[in-house]
Amino acid sequence: MRLYPDVYGRRFAWMLADLVMVAWIYLCVRAGLWVNNLVLQLDALAQGVINAGKTFDSWILSFEQGIPNSVPYPTRSRFTPATRSSRRGRPARAGSTYLP
Questions:
Q1: How far is CA 93 from CA 67, 82, 83, in A?
Q2: Is 2 a domain residue?
Q3: In whole angstroms, what is the distance from residue 51 CA to residue 33 CA?
Q4: Using one digit for the tens of pLDDT, what is the confidence trace for 73-96?
């Protein structure tokens, strides 16, 4: 069994085609490793952003838990639905700070 033809010109063409194929495979592997490295770097950046968001969430939660319910502050009305009733059975006013 012969790997390459006996004629020199065809043998050279087959060897050249094999070398081009090996180079193509090498370039594909290098491109895949480059994309993998890029994705890992972006993942590290994304984890940093996620952790910063979790930190801000914990700060906001601790701030909201530190304020008693009887103290009105501007953002409390945004979290109160307009359909919630007050103590006397009347509909809640817009901007009401009462939370049952």
A1: 21, 7, 9
A2: no
A3: 27
A4: 665 555 555 544 445 555 555 555
- pTM above the 0.70 mark? no
Q: Is the pLDDT of residue 100 over 90?
A: no
Can you give the three-state secondary structure of the chain, one letter per residue? CCCCCCCHHHHHHHHHHHHHHHHHHHHHHHHHHHHHHHHHHHHHHHHHHHHHHHHHHHHHHHHHHHCCCCCCCCCHHHHCCCCCECCCCCECCCCCCCCC
What are the tens digits of pLDDT across the range 28-49? 999 999 999 999 999 988 998 9
Structure tokens at 49: 């952003």
Q: Which of 89, 91, 87 is nearest to 100 (CA)?
A: 87
Residue labelled with tokens 């043998």: 11
- Give the residue numbers spanning the domain of 90: 70-100
Same domain, 60 and 16: yes
Amino acid, single-letter form, for residue 89: G
